[in-house]
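User: Could you check the structure of this?
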Amino acid sequence: MISIGFFSLAVIPVSSVELVIDDMNEITDWTNSGGASPLKLSSTDNQKTHSFYLEKLDIKSDWARYTKKLKTGQNYSNYEKVSYSVYIPDSEVVKQISTWFGEKERWDTGFIHYQTQIKNGWNYITHNMFMFTPVDARLKTWEKIKFISFEITTYLPTQTFEGILIRDLRLINQKDTIFQLKTSSLAIWNDRPFFPIGFYSVSSDVKEDEWIELSQSGFNLITCAESHYFNQLVCENGDTSKWIEFLDQAHRHGLKVAVQLSTGQWIPTAHVWWALDLNPDEVVYQNLRRIGRSQEDARYCADRDRNILYLHTIVDALKEHPALFCWESLDEISQYKIPVEGLLEGISLLKRLDPKHDIWLNHPPSVIDPRWLQHYGCAADIVSLDIYPIPKVFGYGNLPNKEINSVGQYTDLLHKSLTDGQSAWMVLQAYRFNDDEFSHLPQENLRRFPTYHEIRFMTYQAITHGTKGIMYFLYLRRPTLPPAHTYVNTPFTPEFWNTMESIGRELKTLYPVLITENYHRLEVNSDHVSYLLKRVGDLTWLIAVNEQNEPSEVTFRLAQSITKLDIMFEDRSVIFDSNSFTDKFAGYDVHIYHLVLNQGSDDSY
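Assistant: Sure, the predicted structure tokens are below.
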């Protein structure tokens, strides 16, 4: 048994904006789950704290969670941070410390996670009051929250463990920021605006005819399916030849490449980590253990010196290559809750090594608080968010809406997280979920590729909601082998490639519209239609999307009179009358109109 003995506590001043929600004098009302032994608590009167006794049970679980409900009935909407003191004799036992807000299931409300390394001895912890909170979770939502619980999750030791003490859980600092929709900027290439129409995970083993079809179909940006393996070669012996060969192939076919940065050793299960995470090795190790990586894997990946050497080597080799468009951080970093300071240091180093190329960071749909997205994405030039809503029964993403029209909501969410000058892209579904994904759900007739109608709707809904780039996950025309990470995925059917080829050609036709920054308004008699109205030269383009899965008849009224109207990509016409026209939309339908307007008319809408 590890004895905690007696410790003296520093006095922590309470400011006028602090609220002590629990001084932790009470040791009752704790519950346990996981592999926890029956809860045993003892108080230490002169410290006004309590200690846990943890004992591993003879079951498969190697973790224990202890939860205490705190004060209820107050309004917590005016507070931004939480703080507390905790004494921990052995920091490797602690997996995470969390604070949950809300009256329902915890994943429906809010989550706070510590962002400071836990060390042996006394820790004074302060961390931000956000994560997995609802969109717009400021006043209206937070004022409804009357319940808080405090959780400690531990790895269970092989022997009895005694030791965690907590005191003075406080909310501090008033909020003063309301997150609103912001305008995304276009990415720039050679001093000209660039709208990516791209694919993740193109293999270096792609055949010549596939390269040609990919380029001619309008796609202009790709990532590499073998990136982890190529990066392993860079880490082990400074070999960048595979990367250069891939970029050479892309350049010959007029394609740009986003180079994904990772370090470690490529294996199908692990040993790969974020090259831009320059936190101290012990911090990286603890975070990897917290998210479930093994001790061996965590120790291997926690190597700051290797990360720095890798960044110097790969940037020096590739930064002048004509196919390099941007650097991408390893995917979905915001859901792993690493201390952001290390990421900001890594981005700063990358910018010093290559100030010319943008840095791209992609978010997962599990993080739905714009504050948290901005917390990680603030230093990137390009931010994106992926959402794969098909089939809806899988419930992908944490917004309540699981239909395909959630794409517009996730696009709006991403825009709320932007800082000035950032470009916002959306990553959309172009693959079939694997059998091991959502394996607890029925297998038959659920996993499928999106239809042409679904892909077209998701693409144009994202565009009418302001995305400045579309990337599709993923590209796979035929089976691949390791080290391509797509070896586990189902190749496209011929019909699905025809769908993607058709969408790519549409976007290629509309490219001058997509890179034009002028926006105009019109009157629409429906709240369920999103639209984009732009002028390119003397021509006007209108992209209109029916965002409900019900047919609708929609009237559009422009500020100028119409002299000509064509419907793009459809073999039909519509009658117009002066400055308005009416058209029919099926559920989740998209129409694209090409108009000539009387330039002498008023333009006041």
